[in-house]
Amino acid sequence: MKAACAACGLTDDALDGYCRACGGIRLSGAPVPGRDELRPAQEPTPLRPSRVPGLEGVLLKLEGANPTGSFKDRVMRVLVGEAAGSGLRGAVVASSGNAAVAASAACAEAGLPLLVLIPAQTPPERVAPAALRGATVVRVPREISSVHALAGRLAGAFGLANLSSTFAAPGCEWACRQIGRELAEQLDRPVDVLVAPVSAGPVLVGAGRGLAEATGVLPVLVAAQASGCAPIAEAFDAGRAEVRPWTRPIATRAAAIADPLVAYPQDGTFTLAQVKAGGGFAAAVTDEELTAMRRELAVRDGADAELSSCAAPAVWRLAGRTGLGATVVCLLTGNGLKDTLTGPQEPGPSVAGYAEATGAGTRLAEEVQRWTGG
Ligand SMILES: [Zn+2]
Known about the structure:
Layout: E1 3-5, E2 11-12, E3 26-28, E4 47-49, E5 59-62, H1 72-85, E6 91-94, H2 98-110, E7 114-118, H3 128-132, E8 136-139, H4 144-158, E9 161-162, H5 170-186, E10 193-197, H6 202-215, E11 220-226, H7 231-238, H8 265-277, E12 281-285, H9 287-301, H10 311-319, E13 328-332, H11 337-342, H12 351-358, H13 362-372
Parallel strand pairs: 5-13, 6-7, 6-9, 7-8, 10-11, 10-13, 11-12
Antiparallel strand pairs: 1-2, 1-3, 4-5
């Protein structure tokens, strides 16, 4: 697929890398009916109104319902498809978890050997599903954007596909447009505001462009980050056009969006420009706010979203910018099951609490106790 530089317009068909003339971000053209795959090869992910206080009526797009639990399945289906179509013999992916697992599934299907490079702070359970699918997993004692740089070097030196889920691979942003096209099919009205957790930002930019391609209306874009690593939100707050690499320690458990953009700050700058152009904003929330939102989404909406995903609804609620539009969609980019099974366990209410909630009274609690010998 051809991609054109967003800065100088140079067209190129390389699968990954920035513009070779000016270093700019390359974007694929709009899909052509009959030539490009317009729909995902699976059922759409659910879209549901939230019942969380402060988010009533906000629509949650549950990307955790994708086969390996995150929107990265959409990305890897496209990138691995391109790699297999080009006759490459193997693939490499830099990932803090979700991209690695999605890549391992797509590579398993395509019969392509996969090397997974993970940054220092990645919890082992985040990549266990990739190892299960036969991927070779190597921990690199650096932060994520340096790991991306290593993946790029290995891919270039050994003729491997670099399954990059940043703007370095035009197919990544292009794949994320599926989310926007799907939203257009699921809704009978335009989306006014689209909120997404971002590290580099292709998911937000891509979903927005997909909506614009399908409906002619680009929503207001809101970039949500974790305050322990928030280079884009920091630049927005400072009124800077340019995103600078995050140089302080990474102080968040939101691993999927903890990207200091050290090796590719231009990705953040590009995303920030798209956000500002449409009147949107970038903001960050603390891990305490993420954790509180995660619990509320689970209890009120039955949604187990991974901690990073909770940045979207948490930022939207905290900002209180309801004047931006009536139809608001928050992308919950990943499933929380990994966090749930390995993180601090929530005890849940006692039998007495259940009896009170149902109005069954103390007799129910006594009956349960009698049968369970407590
Ligand atoms: Zn260029």
